[in-house]
Amino acid sequence: MEEQTDSVFIRNISVVIVLLVLFTFSIAFLARDVGDKGGEDYNPSRMATTEERIRPVASVYTGEEGAAAIEAAAVTSVSEMKVAFDGSLDAEMIYSNVCSACHATGAAGAPIPGSPVMVERAAKGADALTQNAVNGLNAMPPRGGRADLSDEQVRAVVEYMIQ
Distance of alpha carbon 120 from its chain centroid, rounded? Predict the structure, then answer.
């Protein structure tokens, strides 16, 4: 009777193992069929998106060829840069839109136009103040945080503030 029980047990285990193997193969084939059906052509923008995500952040240029590429990139970036406020030299408008946030309130030590601190700084001359405004000074970022302001616009605002 033990032999019969053992043979039934082995037969049942064998059936379970065979069913599990069949189930595994059926899941594998089903997953293959359900998976990516279109390959690279399925979504045309996928490759462009992938290329954009993995492109290098910077490049290294060497020798004469590199110097020419750097110079061309600099010329392109300067010519493509858009000037703030369509190049307007209206100092009052630029001051109210860019500079007054700090200079009207004295935030972070910014001198208020007409204050004794501003009069003291104005004694340095418009050229020195313009250089400080272009390059930034203390808590003030370069060009007041607006990289698209031209040197002429910065100078006009400086002259407006020291009047």
Answer: 39
User: Tokens 């370069």 belong to which residue?
Assistant: 142
Residue 36 pLDDT > 80: no
Give the whole-angstrom CA distance, residue 78 versus residue 136. 20
pLDDT in tens, 12-23: 999 999 999 999
DSSP assigned state of 110: P
Specify the pLDDT at position 18: 97
Cα distance between residue 30 and residue 45, in whole Å: 27
In the chain, DSSP finds a helix count (H) and a strand count (E) of 8, 0
Q: Could you give the 3-state DSSP secondary structure of residue 140? A: strand
Report pTM.
0.49
Distance CA 150, CA 155 (A): 9
Are the C-beta atoms of residues 156 and 89 closer than 8 Å to each other? yes
**Residue 30 φ/ψ, nearest 5 degrees:** -65, -45
